[in-house]
Every structure is written in C-alpha cells, then in structure tokens.
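Structural prep section.
Before we set up the soaks we want a predicted structure of the protein with NDP in place, mainly to decide which crystallisation condition to try first. Input record follows.
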Amino acid sequence: MRVAFLGLGAIGQPMAGHLARANQLTVWNRTRAAADRFVDTHGGRAAGTPREAVEGAEVVLTCLPTSREVEALLDGPDGILAALLRGALFLDCTSGDPESAQRIARRLAERGVAFADCPVSGGTNGAQAGTLTVMVGADPGTFARARPLLASFGKRIEHLGPVGAGSAMKAVNNALLAVNILSFGEGFTALVKAGVPARKALEVLNASSGRSFVTESLVPDRVLTGAWPNTFRLALLDKDVGIAVRFLHSQGVESPLLHLASELFHDAHAALGENADYLEAIRLQEQRAGVEIRG
Ligand code: NDP
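Run finished without errors. Recording the tokens verbatim:
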C-alpha cells in the first residue's frame, strides 16, 4: 500500500521501520535529518512537508508527542489536509486525548477520510520487536481496515470502542504505570535505608503480590544496574497522567490517587526537564531519601 508515516521519534522510527518492509512508504519528520537517516536504512522516500508526505497515500500514520502537534499538522498550505485523498485512512498512534481524537475524526470525516486513534504500548523494545499492544478507537469498519497495517508493528490489536476509546485506554494504562513507578521508588528507598539488599528485596517482591511490569521488567535492567537508558521521555508520561485525570473527571469519577501521581510527575518534569527518561522519577526519590536502589 502507499503509506505515509509522520513522526520518527523514539517509538515512531521502529514502527515505521516495520511498515517499510511491505509498503511503499513516505516518511516525514520535523527535523529532516531523521527522515533522511530512516530512508538510508529502510528505503522509501523522505518528504519535505506533511503535504508532500501524504500526497497519493492510502494510509497516513502519525506518532507525535500529543494530539496538539497532530492537529497542528492538518492545516496550512503545507498541511496534511491540503493533499489528503478522499477515502484515505488516518491512523493516529500518538498517545493523545479522547476529545482531540474525536475533533480530528470529525474534521477528517467532512473530507471523506476515516480516522482511528491507535496509541501503542510496549516501549521502544516492543516497537523494534513488532510486539506492541495497539489500543484502537474507531467504528468497526475503520478498525477492520486498520488492523492489517497495525499488525506490522503490533501483536495484540484491540478495538476498544468508538474514536477516543483507544486514547482513554492508553491514558489509564500509563497512569497506572506512573503510580507503580512512584510507589516502587518510595517503598524501595525505605527498604534500602533499613538495610534490606535491593536485589533480594526485588526478587521477593517479584515472587509476591506487589509485583508489576515496573518491578519485573524495568527495575532489574535499568535501576538496579544504574543504567538509566533514555527510552520514553518523562515529559510524555506527565502528559499521559494529565490526560487520565481529565478523562476520569469527564466521567464524573473521583481520582485522588491519580491526581497526586499527576502532581508528582508534573513536579518531576519541572525538575528534570524535557529530555529526562520516565524512570528518573525513581532517581529523584533516591535523591530525596539519600540512598540508591542498586544491586
Ligand atoms: P519523541 O519525543 O522521541 O519524538 C517525538 C516526535 O514528534 C519526533 O519525531 C519529533 O520531531 C516530533 N515532534 C515533536 N514536536 C513536533 C511538532 N511541534 N511538530 C511536528 N513534529 C513534532 O517521542 P516518542 O516517539 O517517544 O513518542 C511519540 C508518541 O508515542 C507520544 O505520544 C508518546 O507518549 C507515545 N509513546 C511512546 C513510547 C516510548 O516508549 N517512547 C511508548 C508508548 C507510547 P523532531 O525529531 O523534530 O524532534
């Protein structure tokens, strides 16, 4: 198929890499060098503008920080809408917010373009392996059209409801991730202070009921080793928890815990800046407690 992919960031780049294998792919990235590097490695074509990227495309995928950046690419003489074909399919893999997804879907529907919000989970490793979980909000017909493409980088592809449902699911997932990160940091700095060896404590936790993806998959390789790789910006998780809090509010659900997680990630974002990795929230807690969780 003729496919356009816009947004070759940490996760977009490996996702697009899978699409390049079986499709005629055109990529666009705000910083051109990333698109040129991508084409050198994977083939396809690099476009100079969003408009040029989507010219003739049957499917357009976006993977940008927030819904705001996606909406901003729609308009203007070099924007997506200037060239998007009637009958095209627009898949937004950004972890966006439900209201924006619905607004984008309405604008595209006026032009005969189908839309699905399809944020992903599984991190940059999952994107490289092609094993992402994809959370789709769309009408059933659009989901059926989207599924084969999403399968290029996704293993579990779930239709969660109408447009916006994928974004809501993703925000709740990431809010729970944030809570797990913070609670791990608090509990383990206390254990280390009390003299319990960090690795032994982690092994016991992971054989017990308090374990989580954070403690099983992230802490061993990234925290205990002190490796702290950059794979997912803390700024983006801050954004996700904010989306979750607003989503819960929109449903009339009280959320004291997620409100606090949102405030704490907001503070961590302010303290650590735009480029810190999300697990550095644990490092911040280590600094406050005066111990390191290593072993
Ligand atoms: P990055 O920060 O690594 O990359 C962001 C991408 O968006 C880059 O291509 C960047 O271009 C582009 N961009 C930023 N601002 C603008 C703008 N104003 N206009 C146009 N393009 C812009 O983010 P990720 O790839 O990590 O994340 C992308 C989305 O995927 C986010 O919604 C994130 O929450 C989600 N996600 C990320 C995961 C991860 O593990 N990294 C996991 C699951 C979801 P440039 O190169 O010019 O900076």
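Observations: The radius of gyration is 20 Å.
Flagged for discussion at group meeting.
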